[in-house]
Amino acid sequence: MQNLIEIKGVRHAYQTDSGPLPVLDGLEISVPEGGFVSVVGPSGCGKSTLTRLVAGLMKPDAGEVWLHGERVKGPRATVGMAFQNPVLLEWRSILKNVLLPLEIVPTKLSKKQAEERARFLLSLVGLEGFEEKRPSELSGGMRQRASLCRALIHQPEVLILDEPFGALDAFTREDLWMTMHAVKEREPFTGVLITHDLRESIFLADQVVVLSGRPARTQYVLNVPKHGPRTLDDLYTPEAAEQLNILRHQIEIAQGRAPAEEAQP
User: Fold this and answer.
1) What does the pLDDT read at residue 107?
2) In what order do the strands lie in the sheet with 79-83?
3) Containing H/E element for 81?
4) 39, 1, 57, 75: which is closest to 194 by C-alpha?
5) Which of the chain's ends, N or C, has fewer CB atoms near its CB within 10 Å?
6) How does the average pLDDT of the chain come out, rounded?
């Protein structure tokens, strides 16, 4: 299967008053077309920097980022992004918030087609009937669903999710995990999820990439076997328990709380 995303030997540092702060060091990640990869690692190890590099919002100091065989040199219209904070505009209805990217990104859709697509996406995530509501009239989980629709409205090849469920309560978060599976079934995309939740990482992704401590490298890659449509019960199987134990141990290594020589699979 062709890799849609290729991160090759990426190094990056931020300039500070006390000198360069290395964040990424020779990072290597490949994501196949249609795949879904979760990225986990210690706080501050460069996970969000990784998303900006893939989206073309930043350029690495060294190394290359490729999307669909093209080197990323600037912002890409084929990338959609959703964040922990939905950042919906209060003066716009939910429908118009979802349509906002189409006012920026070129589209072949007519105004009617764009609105029909927005209504379809809102229906898909359970927000049918809320199109004319304002963001303040929706719960946090509902606002995050609208943010997901906004990220998908222009039919991106790549969807980047930077801790989109981190601020939600456990029940709402699990409900949105199921929504994500339903959305990916109807709206195919290649996904990159940044998360601190190890359960979330194995439930949503086909592969979990563990980053080392800063400056981050690819420390460990866990493949998550597929056994048909996933349900929350899958998180309580012996297989899931083993996967979580492996990831917890890898995080301990990345944090320096376990011997580094054990990091390799």
Assistant:
1) 79
2) 79-83, 158-162, 190-194, 36-40, 207-211, 218-223
3) strand 79-83
4) 39
5) N
6) 89
**Angle separating helix axes 140-152 and 170-186, nearest 10 degrees:** 20
Predicted confidence at residue 260, as pLDDT, reads 64
Structure tokens at 29: 């990640």
- One-letter amino acid at 195 equals T
Domains and CATH numbers, the chain: 1-75+159-164+190-223+238-265 (3.40.50.300)
Strand 79-83 with 3-16, pairing = unpaired
Please give the pLDDT value at position 263. Answer: 45
Collect the ranges in the chain with pLDDT lower than 50.
262-265
Q: What is the DSSP string of 218-252?
A: EEEEEE----SS--GGGGGSHHHHHHHHHHHHHHH
- Residue 83's CB is within 10 A of a number of other CB atoms, namely 18
**pLDDT at residue 159, rounded to an integer:** 92
- Taking Cα atoms as reference points, which of 61, 13, 53, 59 lies closest to residue 29? 53
